[in-house]
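Troubleshooting entry. The earlier prediction with guanosine-5'-diphosphate gave an output that would not parse, so I re-checked the input for stray whitespace and re-submitted. Clean input:
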Amino acid sequence: NFRGATFEQSAPSIHQCPPENGLEVAFAGRSNAGKSSAINTLTDNSKLARTSKTPGRTQLINFFSVGEGQRLVDLPGYGYAKVARAMKEEWQRNLSEYLQERDCLQGLVLLMDIRHPMQEFDSMMINWAVEVEMPVHILLTKADKLKRGPANSTLLAVRKQMQAAGVSDLVTAQCFSSLKRTGVDDLKRKLTEWLTP
Ligand code: GDP
């Protein structure tokens, strides 16, 4: 029940996450990839993701409940202005630890702007996930910015890259647009698959 999603709590680090009960799916992406918009579109609730845009909260992990023992997790965006290197390293450590240690995590939704997919951060996240056999679902966001042909070519290129890396069993991909509401049903299907015990 994605429309009934409610904000549960924030955690400043992986070590202060709520207890592991039920199942979780996490959302990650470079800042400006369209993560807040996607969560808003998915849940039909513009106030939800705004929570995570509150200044000071951007570095927090935000937990949303979408049902009994079912959570969506909004991971901090990456690429905000001038984050000190030490902080960036700590943040990276946090993210990789979360992927490694969070047993109730079922999958990772990784958002990338369709106009420049597979940046350094994206590959890093995929590598960490694949290392611990965590499934990844790539959303090529703002698909409305490209015509159908180029959008499909980008999707195929990303899939091909995953095949070449031998990880296409773990990493799936789709186009998505919050503006045009395209790909919402495919995303819901994937999330339901992951969140069903
Ligand atoms: P976040 O930093 O990843 O949470 O990204 P936001 O959701 O705040 O979106 C960043 C910018 O991209 C905003 O200006 C949005 O209006 C825009 N945006 C997000 N999704 C879409 C989309 O599907 N289509 C278009 N054209 N713009 C989008």
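This one parsed fine. The first strand starts at residue 6 and ends at 11.
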